[in-house]
Amino acid sequence: MARISCGHCNVKRFYRPLELREVIGNVTIDQVPAKVRCEKCGRKESMRAELFHPVGKELETIRFRRLVEIRWERRVIWKDEL
Predict the structure, then answer these.
(1) Helices (H) then strands (E): counts for the chain
(2) How far is it, in rounded angstroms, from Cα 36 to Cα 43?
(3) Exposed, middle or buried, 49 (CB in 10 Å: 0-12/13-18/19+)?
(4) d(CA 79, CA 45)
(5) What pTM, to 2 d.p., does this model score?
(6) Which of 5, 37, 70, 77 is the most exposed place for a label (fewest CB within 10 A)?
């Protein structure tokens, strides 16, 4: 399991590594904090990530974030020319 936490607002989220790899790409756990942003405060610089194995009661209390779908958004950007 992967734990990604924000040091600024003290939010911890738990993910399955295969789903993280699908979204972020095939990177090491040390490279994950540079690729994610906190959903609560929006900061990137205070993110931490680690792999761990939950055991016993800890496994029962963890709520995992599951990947539902990936949407690609199309945006139009205009530029005025003289």
Answers:
(1) 3, 4
(2) 9
(3) buried
(4) 32
(5) 0.78
(6) 77
Q: Tally Cβ neighbours within 10 Å of residue 28.
A: 8
What is the pLDDT tens value at each position of the chain, 82 positions in all? 999 999 999 999 999 999 999 999 999 999 999 999 998 999 999 999 999 998 888 888 899 899 999 988 888 888 988 8
